[in-house]
Amino acid sequence: MPGLDPSLIADLPSFSGLERRELETLLGYAQPLRFSEGATVFAQGDEAESFYVLLDGHIRVVRSTPEGQQVIVRYISVGELFGIAAALGRSTYPASAVAAAECVALAWPNAKWDELTARFPSLGANTYKTVGGRLQDAHTRVVEMSTEQVEQRVAHALLRLVKQTGRKTAEGVEIDFPITRQDIAEMTGATLHTVSRVLQAWEKDGIVRGGRKRVVVISPHRLLLKAEARKES
Amino acid sequence: MPGLDPSLIADLPSFSGLERRELETLLGYAQPLRFSEGATVFAQGDEAESFYVLLDGHIRVVRSTPEGQQVIVRYISVGELFGIAAALGRSTYPASAVAAAECVALAWPNAKWDELTARFPSLGANTYKTVGGRLQDAHTRVVEMSTEQVEQRVAHALLRLVKQTGRKTAEGVEIDFPITRQDIAEMTGATLHTVSRVLQAWEKDGIVRGGRKRVVVISPHRLLLKAEARKES
DNA sequence: CGAGAAATTGAAAAGATTCAACTCTCGTGG
DNA sequence: CCACGAGAGTTGAATCTTTTCAATTTCTCG
Questions:
Q1: What pLDDT, on a 0 to 100 scale, did the predictor assign at position A1?
Q2: Tens of pLDDT, residues A68-90
Q3: Residues by CB within 7 Å of nucleic chain C, which ones?
Q4: What residue stretches are annotated with the Cyclic nucleotide-binding domain (chains A, B) (predicted)?
Q5: Between the CA atoms of B143, A151, A75 and B156, what dihedral angle is there, to the nearest 10 degrees?
Q6: pLDDT digit string, tens, across residues A25-41
Q7: Please, are residues A142 and B137 in contact by the beta-carbon 8 Å criterion?
Q8: N- or C-end of chain B: fewer Cβ atoms within 10 A?
């Protein structure tokens, strides 16, 4: 078996500072996996067996309440680590990971985490920088949920998606995977009805264009105004 | 100068796994500081010069929006690290730290962070476990803000404070530092008016007792019911 | 004791949800 | 190839929670 090609991960921030030989060693422990849209990579509460890096596609990280309501904690894009419960000192996954589109990922056994970070210190350092960034993101979201109303929160959520996964088209910037009103609602703590109304209003204004499981941002600039609007039109 | 006594920090989780001699070395770089109630330890946006461990008192970590609204990100209790921007790969503080009561803390220069974690690996490991825990907490809060209404959020916030800093009294469990309705509002994303009404209702029910800058939880059990209530009484 | 901060409370208004009905879109199978 | 059905989206009306506005009241510290 010819092993995986180091160029797969060589350019990812998570693996920066590693030599080609080290990458090869690392890949020796990795297992490539494919997930079709809607497939569950791991479920909240599961024993954490692996950590992952996303090579292609988009992953939705979801937390469910005891009452069954879902909240989308974040979207993972290509190159990002996910399922890193081991690095956080947890033995079960605190959230579920679902393929938002066709996905390819590499998985390492969690049992190897300590060994790998000991052998490749920059892997640990990079990971913790990632975790630090996510903590900032989470706090930002708490602030948004505390101080903004739905329209602004939806605007911020869309802008984040545009930056993270936007794909330029003739019309504007399109979110690069199927996303429903319900998904946006679960990202912003609103109902799909309210989200629908907000998007509808923006569409009339020519700021976005919607579609079944599609959102195209026509004017990111004007969307930013909506995101920052302290009241008024 | 006789140096600080290792017993100050020997029992704190952040320093577990360190030898007495190592603690002494560590303390050699630390500077003890006192802050009076309301004093600012560091301000959001400041160049991050130090990281801290709290030896006595309570610290409020606050994020402000451009519009001047404040959100309390978390309370730091005795033994916890704070201001660890360095560990998160940030050069400025993402939030302000304010003494919620008379405080004593130790400060280390951030410049020493890399050196110290290199010399004392368990310090790094402990810190990252802390950060991981805080990421979980932040996500939990996002979920609460998304799915619960004000009364439940206030109940959860109080229960967290009780667990973290509760002091048993004849009447019940008292939050161990001065806390206003406004503070609780900033923890829960509500207005002080709504918080006041909620607390007032609970007081009539005998679940809590309020006072100027004081909250005593008389029946944590019944408060927990409020926190979990999916609608109804 | 007085003054300012903190807390309470009623009434009106706003924002979002809930409920309900209806429409549109797309993929599948006859 | 077209019809059908389920999932996705839209939209009006009623309702509800929370905020906003505006007074007051209460407390505590100096």
A1: 56
A2: 999 999 999 999 999 999 888 89
A3: A 149-151, 189-191, 193-194, 197, 211-212, 231; B 180-182, 192-193, 196-197, 199-200, 203, 210, 212-214
A4: 14-103
A5: -10
A6: 999 999 999 999 999 99
A7: no
A8: N
**pLDDT for A4:** 84
Q: Do B94 and A136 touch (CB under 8 A)?
A: yes
Please compute the mean of the pLDDT values over residues B162-183 and round it to a whole number: 96
Q: How far is A177 from chain B (nearest CA, A)?
A: 23
Please give the Cα distance from A206 to A102 (Å, whole number). Answer: 30
What strand order describes the sheet that includes A59-64? A40-42, A96-99, A59-64, A70-76
* pLDDT exceeds cutoff 50 at A233: no
Alpha helices in chain A (DSSP H): 20-28, 113-119, 121-147, 150-165, 181-188, 192-205, 220-228
CA–CA distance, B224 with B202 (Å, rounded to integer): 12
- The answer to whether the CB of A190 falls within 8 A of the CB of A199 is no
Identify the structural domains of chain B with CATH numbers, from first to last: 6-133 (2.60.120.10), 148-228 (1.10.10.10)
Nucleotides of C under 7 A from a protein CB: 6-11, 15-20, 25-26
Is the confidence at residue B24, as pLDDT, over 90?
A: yes
Under 8 Å CB pairs connecting chains A and B tally to 104
In terms of CA atoms, which chain A residue is nearest residue B85? A132
